[in-house]
Amino acid sequence: MIVRSAGLSQVAKRKLSAKDLEWADLVFVMDAEQKRKIIRLYQREQDLPELVNLEIQDIYPFMDAELVDQTS
Fold first, then answer.
1. Position with higher pLDDT, 40 vs 64
2. Distance CA 25, CA 69 (A)
3. Is 59 contained in some domain?
4. How many domains does the chain have?
């Protein structure tokens, strides 16, 4: 299995693209808002792969020190 990671934010290190969606068989999103955003941005361009909502709440502010420490 080969996986890719991409973000939806303008400041994401690697932003999701239409080519990513063409390549993917399955896309996992953290919440319903991410799923809606992908549909809104890309549905007109192509058939989308299955979008699976993991329903993970984003309870941390951007660049939260606790998370940054965990990834270092």
1. 40
2. 33
3. yes
4. 1
Asked if residue 1 belongs to a domain, the reply is no
Give domain status of residue 11, yes or no.
Answer: no
- Using CA atoms, how far apart are residues 12 and 20, in angstroms rounded to an integer? 14
Q: In whole angstroms, what is the distance from residue 11 CA to residue 2 CA?
A: 24
Q: How far is CA 54 from the centre of its chain?
A: 11
Residue with tokens 């984003």: 58
**How many other CB atoms are there within 10 angstroms of residue 47's CB atom?**
8
User: How much is the pTM?
Assistant: 0.78
Q: Which domain holds residue 24?
A: 19-71
What pLDDT is attached to residue 25? Answer: 95
Cβ partners under 8 Å of residue 59, min gap 6: none
Q: What are phi and psi of 51, to 5 degrees?
A: -105, 115
